[in-house]
Design brief:
The protein is of the alpha+beta class and 506 residues long. Bound molecules: S-adenosylmethionine (SAM) and zinc ion (ZN) (3 copies). One zinc ion (ZN) binds next to loops.
Length: 506
């Protein structure tokens, strides 16, 4: 229906419907006139202006023609701006303006904190401690609410509307997702070059749209060899060590706040136990185990990582021993020589997880424990994204839900988490992992989906509190090497369980 016609009908109805409609000629005349007025068919109101007007009746709704991320169109005020420091383009809520410097700075260059305040339909603003004038500033949405937006103050030329540094992003409607539905990809084989190309596209996409994670196409396992997975880790090891800020040698935020508290709880008393840290990386966990009184051995196939671990051992003399080698073939260790094997976010990087489970089972004493954390195969895999509306928003309430796809696509993906060259990551289904564990003679005692302790999250509200308490990114499998004959046969009905070399059929 023509919008003016609708308006007219509303007026007519409110005044005296019957009277006007009784006069047929008059009504028809007005109707014809209205139909002659052209409609602005292409007008799409700004997503944010529409939101604000619900709270503030006189707010001027602007046309959303400048920038669109995802499904929404936005006006200039609510678009993206360029950070004066890093030159990146960011969502207006993730930027602040410093009047002294007349600069717009992004939340990556200066990490914000959450400032609880009720304004429009929001419950918090982003607060920034300005490094230039040392005054506190707020994000551009709150600045606008409080009348401190640069365009409201209007005294500084640089950020006047007409010369705003805003990329005119082509309006994409309907939204064109980068990934394809699973059935379109079935049977498709891609080359390494194609995957890398896809990875690049995804990276540039990530740059545009914040933290949206997509991955490249899945590779069949046979196409990836162990030496390539190792070489890639070797190259990525430096970035890994830098990226995971080892605050007090305790691992990155995910480890400190989410995974490790659950791991320690599961391990219980470890004093005097001989423990292998399988895929030890920079060895922070191995050292922590040793500090708690365990006899620790670490293994990793990357020379750089083990070099770092040995250097640290020289400095600290914790009695840790480190080996370079693949988890798939740990000939340096005798059978039944460990009380416990711990492995922290490693299996996702190991191509031959079945061989690895068997090796771990071999070196464990009977009833020995195998406790390992991994990316959650459903919620923590690269096959999921938070659907944000719009895509580039930093605001948590605009993360609407999670999209999960390709769950059954078991195989390798090229993934990078910082600026590192991509490493292979392997996605497996829950069923594949559990069957492989049974196949290697393990029983699962418990599965833990670790949640952050809210108390710990005060300093990390955006990246951790709101995301990891919505869904588990990680999963911990607490397993025990156990003779399956001790189990109730019903539990294993129909399963083929391999114990050593004997195939037992139940
Ligand atoms: C995500 S990192 C985790 C490192 C460490 N556990 C931590 O929590 O910081 C994965 C590690 O697994 C190692 N890795 C991957 N595949 C391996 C294999 N087949 N044999 C030995 N190490 C492997 C990598 O070199 C890397 O150090
Ligand atoms: Zn707007
Ligand atoms: Zn910046
Ligand atoms: Zn300032």
């Amino acid at each position: 229906m023509h919008p003016l016609l609708l308006e007219w009908l509303k007026v007519v109805y409110n005044h005296n419907t019957i009277c006007v409609f009784d006069n047929k000629k008059y009504s028809l005349f007005i109707l014809c006139l209205i139909m002659l007025i052209p409609t602005d068919k292409n007008r799409t109101d700004c997503f944010y202006c529409q939101d604000i007007v619900k709270e503030e009746k006189n707010y001027p709704i602007r046309i959303g023609k400048y920038s669109s991320e995802g499904l929404v169109n936005r006006c200039l005020w609510h678009s993206k701006f360029q950070c004066s420091e890093c030159k990146g383009f960011f969502h207006f809520s993730f930027l602040y303006w410093c009047p002294t410097a007349n600069q717009i700075i992004c939340g990556k260059c200066n990490k914000p904190t959450l400032y609880p305040t009720k304004f429009w339909n929001k419950t918090y603003a982003y607060a920034f401690d300005c490094k230039i004038c040392e005054e506190p500033h707020f994000d551009l949405l709150y600045a606008e609410y409080t009348g401190k937006h640069p365009w409201q103050i209007n005294t500084k030329k640089l950020y006047k509307e007409e010369n705003a540094l805003i990329p005119i992003v082509q309006i994409r409607f309907p939204w064109e997702p980068i990934w394809k539905p699973a059935d379109l990809r079935k049977g498709k084989e891609i080359t390494v070059e194609e995957a890398l190309k896809a990875d690049n596209i995804i990276h540039s996409y990530r740059k545009q749209s914040g933290n949206v994670t997509f991955h490249s196409d899945v590779f069949a396992d046979e196409k990836i060899d162990l030496s390539d997975t190792r070489d890639r880790w070797e190259k990525a090891s430096h970035t890994f060590m830098q990226y995971y800020d080892n605050i007090e040698d305790k691992g990155d935020g995910n480890r400190r706040l989410i995974i490790d508290p659950a791991l320690w709880k599961q391990m219980g008393e470890i004093k005097g136990l001989r423990i292998l840290d399988a895929g030890c990386g920079n060895g922070y966990l191995a050292r922590e185990l040793a500090r708690k009184g365990a006899k620790v051995v670490g293994i990793d196939f990357s020379k750089n990582f083990i070099g770092f671990c040995r250097k640290k051992e020289k400095e600290e003399s914790l009695g840790c021993e480190f080996h370079i080698g693949s988890l798939t073939n740990m000939t340096m260790f005798e059978s039944e020589s460990f009380d416990m094997v711990v492995s922290n976010i490693v299996m996702v990087d190991v191509q031959d997880y079945k061989a690895t489970f068997k090796e771990i089972s071999r070196i464990l004493k009977p009833e020995g424990r195998f406790i390992w954390s991994n990316l959650h195969p459903v919620f923590g895999s690269n096959n999921q994204i938070f659907f944000r509306l719009p895509f580039d928003t930093p605001r948590n309430e605009e993360k609407l839900f999670i999209l999960i796809d390709r769950y059954f696509d078991s195989g390798g993906l090229l993934v990078s988490w910082a600026k590192n060259k991509p490493v292979w990551q392997f996605h497996r289904t829950l069923q594949e992992y559990t069957q492989a564990l049974f196949g290697a003679g393990f029983l699962i005692r418990e599965i833990i989906e670790p949640k952050p302790v809210l108390e710990d999250l005060k300093d990390n509200p955006r990246s951790l509190a709101f995301d990891s308490d919505r869904r588990p990114i990680f999963i911990i499998y607490d397993c025990v090497k156990k003779n399956v004959e001790s189990l109730h046969p019903l539990l294993l009905e129909g399963l083929e369980v391999q114990v050593g070399n004997d195939m037992l059929k139940w």
